[in-house]
Amino acid sequence: MENSRSAAVEPSRHAVLIGIDGYKNDGLNGAVRDVEDIKAQIESVSTGTHITVLTAAKGSSPWKHSAEKDKSTLPTNSNVTAAFNKVLHSASAGDFVYIHFSGHGTRQEPTKGDYNTHTGDLVLVLLGNNEDQPEAYLRGKSLATWLSDMVEAGLVVTLVLDCCFSGSVCREDDRSVRCIPYNHQTDLASPPDRESANSEVRNLSITRGASLLDNWTVDPDKYVMLVACGQDELAKELRMKDGSYHGALSFTLLQVLREDDSLTNHHQDIFERLRAGFRKYRISQNPVLLGNKSQGFFGKPNTDKLGATLPVIDKGDGTLEIQVGEAHRVHCGDQFTLHPTGPITSIPDETVIITKVTSTTEFTSTIVPLEATGFPEQTRWRARVLSRLALQEFPVRLDASLPQLDEWVAALGLRFLTVQAHEDEGECLLHLSLNHIHGDYEIRSKDKTIMTLPVMPDRQVDTGRVSDVLEHLSKFELVKCLKNETAAEAFRSSFKVQLTCNDNAFTLGTFIQLRHNTLAELYFENRGDQKVYVFIYNLGSSWQVENIYKGTYFTVAEKCSLARKLRMKVPDHFMEAGRFSCEDTVKVIVTSQPTSFSFLELGKIDEPTKPGKADRVSRGGGNKEEQWMAVDFRIHTSLT
């Protein structure tokens, strides 16, 4: 049973900070400093946080502590799980939990019948109980059960893992790498997996129209996990000018937290600035975000009046770079506004600089100010889209009988939508009219079918609200049409994507009909000689564009494959309205470099835009060839 408190009482904060330098054979240099600095930052901006610190310094054997009190602060499996258990039983619903691990990770060998049979389970490498057993594993499944039970108790959890899980690909000659090879004997000697009271870990219950069963993700809407790098990358320690060491993720995260002097920014805002920081410091790894990006980092999230923003990188030549490009349907001539961020700024917060895109690559764009004023020095920026020329490819026709037609033209023009007033102007995407009998606005698709949308009575909605709906539908169509006709043939033929269900394999372009609650499998095979990055989106029947994975992307190594399960369901609100079928498009985007497509994400059309929804973007090595492809599976799901 979860603890509860009065709504008038402010939520508490609980932190478990784990840092291990003192491994017997593969010691690190910056893990303890990571958690000490994180602890100091938390205490500087938040009073009354309940903090447990478990560390093992490099040097003398950590097992030679004479006092039991000292032994209780070692990062052993028993102490770590005791700390988790303390949080679980002392915290109340609505409290915030922050878990930070800096140390070695590895990846367990895949076993038959395991829920992660393709890559094996991630493992945190903790201290063992004595010198004869110097290390012990906390397996991913056990970690998942703790997270699940915390979430089930109503706690808001953030998990940061500054380590990597590359397993056997770790380079033994590089002591700055935060992973070690998997050891079967250590695994056998480690405590068994913890069984959760929450059956969701075993059953992985599904609540979305198209939901993805990832390795051990119970409900990614209810927590956030931030990992130092992808599964095939190496998390490194950085050597500072003063000779000290830090984990790359912990160091960059600390810079962001110090800039804000707060712990309550949205995760997506923090993540985008992490990406920009990694690029600024030329860190080769790419951190990964999984979970509810609208969640506050370690407290109630701030409301950001700017809405969606993008990271900005100073190129040092009088221009700036934003991490979206042709693959995101950004074109030369598009406009973005710049807003200062962070404490170091030479201009007032309300100052806005309007910029335009002057050149693009597949994944990035260069922007310059419209006026020849340049950019103030020592200012950190974030960008917000102002105009998108790509939306003009989807004209909207206004019925001649609409009242105040000039107002409609002006409202849609502000949204950079092309307006048609006559039938003979060519094909249109949407047709807006007013049903004078019922007094409702109606929107028809290009085949002249009335679209099933939230009711918009003439007397209750204004021009702006209806124009927002038209803009949303245009953006949805833009994503639906997203494809790359100019992708190199070598890249096109380097992978295979297939959807299977009940031993039936569906090829691309097939219209797939499935029963409600059917479990299908999405299979991806990388036949090429380079790793690729796979994004899986659902374009749903409520005109939403959502990342099914609730994270960044999957990395698929060369000559490897990936399989992920999807459960197709008719949404509950459809059935409540007497609609017993729905149509979704599962869009799979494959890229040659890390990037993000959250710039294209949309909520359901009847949901208000969430404040602070930001883009999470990263890019690999500068001159690497930029290639991408998008493929679709149209799925009709019905109860019969």
TrEMBL record:
MF term (GO), any: cysteine-type endopeptidase activity
CC annotations in GO: cytoplasm
InterPro entries, alphabetized: Metacaspase, Pept_C14_caspase
Organism domain of life: Eukaryota
Family: Belongs to the peptidase C14B family.
Name assigned to this protein: Peptidase C14 caspase domain-containing protein
The Peptidase C14 caspase domain, residue ranges: 13-289
GO biological process, one term: proteolysis
